[in-house]
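Might you be able to review the protein record set out just below?
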Amino acid sequence: MSNTVFRRRTALLTATVAAAASLALTACGTDLDSAAKNTPTVAADNGVSSTATPKTDAGDTKAEASGTDAAVTSKSGGSSTTAKGSSGSKSTSSIVTCTGANTKVTAQTVSRPLNHLLLTVKNTGSKTCYLYGYPALNFQDAQSVPPVDEDTQPQAVTTLSPGQSGYAGVLLSAADGSGSGGYTAKTLSVIFQNRALDFVGSGVKVALPSKGVYIDSSLTTTYWLTNPSDALN
């Protein structure tokens, strides 16, 4: 083969390879361009998604905050309801203490049991009152308030609606004469207890039989009770 023909074929082969390489590069460039174009798009999508995600989270957080607010509002509503319930219970707390100002106290001797006096407290007021504890009895010339019979303590405070009565029984003297320091008392004052079970005031004067009542060291009272039979027994 002549040198001229060889050089022509070599040149043609070179040109063919160059053309193929050029086409390959062009194709790669096209792919790279597409990738370049797609990559910003994906990045942009990611950016949007990334931006969207905080928005969504923010929305969720807002929703959660709203839920919290709703819960707080609900709790506030509950508190309000409780407050209303509390205000409703004020009707119970409006019950007053029985005193000489809203009651009438009377005393009467009884035939049975012997040497006993029955005290009656009637609620003359317009509100229900609590008759706390037991009466402090101040008989004429008495040196001290007589003790209470602890066995008579009721399960709950004696409560008197308007017009209702409470009772206390008083053992004046020992039936067998075993008491000491006996004498006849013609006056009596009854002192009420308050919620703290303190005796308050100078007492309410209570009329006794004109001949008076005989008392000795056995003098004892019961708690305020709702039943006169319980008070005397």
Notes: The helical segments are 3-93, 228-232.
